[in-house]
Amino acid sequence: MKTVMTAVANPIINEKLKNETNIQIIGNDIQYKEGVIEALEKNKEINYLILSDILIGKELLIELIKKIKIINKNIKILVILTEENKKECDNLISCGVEKIFYNNNVEIKEIVKVINEENETDKLIEEINSLKKIIIENNNKNNLEKNKKTQNKIKKENKLKNKLLIFNKIKIINNIKNKINKYLPKKLINKNNNIKSEVISVLGPAGVGKSIFTINLANSYVYSKNKILIIDFDILNNSLHTILGLKKYSKIIREKLKNNNLINSKINIKELTIKITNKIDLISGINLLFDSKYKISSEKIYNIINELKEKYEIIIIDNSAECFFDYTKNIIENSNINIFITEANLSEIKKSKNLLNIYINKWNINKNKINILFNKFNKNSIDINILKNIFNEFNILGKLNFDDKYNLIINKNGITCDNKIMKEYININKKIEEENLTKIKN
Q1: Contact predicate 276/282, CB 8 Å
Q2: Which fold has domain 2-106?
Q3: What is the pLDDT of residue 339?
Q4: What does the alpha-carbon distance between residue 215 and residue 246 come to, in Å, rounded to a whole number?
């Protein structure tokens, strides 16, 4: 069994690896570069270190790896880079890095595969060395047993060859299976894997930060889910594409708009989809699926969501703040989790109470379907215990602290944020999962 230490500033990877039977995770996930050196000096028997370039610290990644190799020259290092950089990759490989992954493509199973393949290779090497030792010992025995020794040697060598053949066959079969899965229809794969889609609806008054929350929540799922979709259903004031630095419509739709072909051609969901990363997609022009933005049937909402659930594990819908859109009611009813975002000040609480009153009394939405989250929390906000008392009819997910770096996310058109912010979202992510499980049990 291989001993592994993680330093990726993301506890999810550490927790996932603890569930693997052939891997022993040492300690918790390390959050800063200096902590890696401290941990390795205390435990020099680590076989693998999984290291990310997003760790906090002044040390350059290449210099950090050199220091690690001085402490433990036999340690094997797997590096996760935020983005691909050939020059940096060459430098890392030259310093003895075993494998390089990229942040938007890395999956737990790929990390486990690298470590497990090494386990299998080590076992084979041990067997080969053991056989060599036996052969050498046999050669030093009396000539009277020479024939017997030769026969034993041949048998053991044949046994080893058979093991190597079996190992190679398994690798070939797995490669073929992966290639077959690659070309299977997506829907078929989803059904066989029993993917259970979750639909998360983001609600609240205008200006409370629904769009930034939606983007960061999607990003917090990249280590645990393979296919994530964001839908901008704020038809009047959609802004997700602007924050992400994208055009509102996909290339296919832009061509149809350019040639005035939208009226004569039927638009499907696939044509509206814009790829943000390897795991995250965006739909920002969903209004094109409806004849009027004011008349959207509940049946069509239901069919759209069900169609998307066949492809995506997580669907996050950013909704309009306007209460005169009845389709928001249909989205709430068709979502597993509804997150209502508000700010912790008197003005926003008043707006939120009015909007919630429409949901509950006019639309007859069950209070149990609404989860409250306090955004942009700071030292001048209303005390959290008072807020819990004000919204005591609803489930409280918690609070997200205000951070100046939110403006950087918007202005830089980025979908990633720093570890401090992401840690808050991972905690909210866990509470969402717990709330969903509770509702399933009930």
Answers
A1: yes
A2: Rossmann fold (3.40.50)
A3: 95
A4: 13
Rg of the chain on CA atoms, in Å: 28
pLDDT of residue 170: 57
pLDDT greater than 80 at residue 51: yes
Predicted TM-score (pTM) of this structure:
0.55
Closest CA to 200 of 29, 371, 442: 371
Q: Note the pLDDT of residue 191.
A: 43
Cβ pair 343, 373 in contact under 8 A: no
Sequence spans of domains, the chain: 2-106, 118-183, 195-441
Supply angle C-alpha 62, 6, 230, rounded to 5: 95
Classify residue 242 by burial, with Cβ atoms within 10 Å: 0-12, 13-18, 19+.
Answer: middle
Mean pLDDT of 80-107: 84
Q: Do domains 2-106 and 195-441 have the same CATH topology?
A: yes
Quick count: other Cβ atoms within 10 Å of Cβ 193? Answer: 11
**24-47 CB burial, b ≥16 within 10 A, e <16:** ebbeebbbebebbbebbeeeeebb
Q: Name residue 92's amino acid.
A: L
- Quick check: 209 and 234 in contact, CB under 8 A? no
Mean pLDDT of 119-128: 58
Three-state SS sequence of the chain: CEEEEEECCCHHHHHHHHCCCCEEECCCCCCEHHHHHHHHHHCCCCCEEEEECCCECCCCHHHHHHHHHHHCCCCEEEEEECCCCHHHHHHHHHCCEEEEEECCCCCHHHHHHHHHHHHHHHHHHHHHHHHHHHHHHHHCCCHHHHHHHHHHHHHHHHHHHHHHHHHHHHHHHHHHHHHHHHHCCHHHHHHHCCCCCEEEEEECCCCCCHHHHHHHHHHHCCCCCCCEEEEEECCCCCCHHHHCCCCCCCHHHHHHHHCCCCCCCCCCHHHHEEECCCCEEEECCHHHHCCECCECCHHHHHHHHHHHHCCCCEEEEEECCCCCCCHHHHHHHCCCEEEEEEECCHHHHHHHHHHHHHHHHHCCCCHHHEEEEEEEECCCCCCHHHHHHHCCCCEEEEEEECCCHHHHHHHCCCCCCCHHHHHHHHHHHHHHHHHHHHHHHC
Residue-wise pLDDT tens digits, 178-189 = 544 444 434 334
Contact of 25 with 58, CB cutoff 8 Å: no
351 pLDDT tier (thresholds 50, 70, 90): very high
* Domain 195-441 in CATH 3.40.50.300: yes
